[in-house]
Amino acid sequence: IASEPDCFDVTGDLSCAQGRLRTACGGGQARLMVFTRAEAVADGVSDSELKSLLKRGDHVRLVRGVYADAAELAGWEEDQHRTRVMGVARISSLLVSHISAAVLHGLPVPGGDLTEVHATRLGVGGNRHRSTRHVHSGIVSPEWQTTLEGVYVTTVARTLVDVAKTQPRLAAVTAADAALHRDLCTYEEITDAVHS
Predict the structure, then answer these.
(1) Distant-in-sequence, close-in-space partners of 182: CB < 8 Å, separation ≥ 6
(2) What pLDDT is stored for residue 5 in this prediction?
(3) Could you give the CA distance from residue 46 to residue 33 in angstroms, rounded to a whole number?
(4) How far apart are CA 100 and CA 154, in angstroms?
(5) Which of 35, 167, 170, 178 is most buried by its number of CB atoms within 10 A?
(6) Which residues make Cβ contacts (< 8 Å) with residue 142, sequence separation at least 6?
(7) Which are the contacts of 173, defined by CB distance < 8 A and separation ≥ 6?
(8) Dist. CA 84–CA 79, nearest whole Å
(9) Which of 29-33, 134-138, 187-191 has the highest mean pLDDT?
(10) Among candidate residues 42, 178, 155, the one with its CA nearest the CA of residue 109
(11) How many CB atoms lie under 10 A from the CB of residue 190?
């Protein structure tokens, strides 16, 4: 167990709080630094320290109660979207789908709309649309669902069908080409997903 940094902070320096968050989220490992308020408090970061880190711009609020290191949002647009998807996944049991699933599967989506996190609520009912989230509703059979990094997500084949239905042709064709080239799915699986 890593030892707690020795902090007596009278200067307003928040490096100790940041160090505790980095340690709690995997330190130097290649992991997204996405965490909940409860996880931060459990690791010794007070609410006032967290608020200061947010105000200073070191961390950002992804969704209510879920935060990320600001550096996670400084990269490519797909990386930024991936961070937001992981944030939403921390607080919901929705099935990540459509273009958000494509990003989690590591598929390129040039020209795709990454302004919202897309997920599917299994069952019947209307779609729900918020400024940062688009929740689709529908029936997705278990054969088209999988888990990726602890997140429920549509399979690659089903994701490609959803992307083709909702995104520009360039994003859909590029994602499908990459998936087939990387052997992430087969043409037959895509065809089956179309008919599901």
Answers:
(1) none
(2) 35
(3) 18
(4) 10
(5) 35
(6) none
(7) none
(8) 9
(9) 187-191
(10) 178
(11) 19
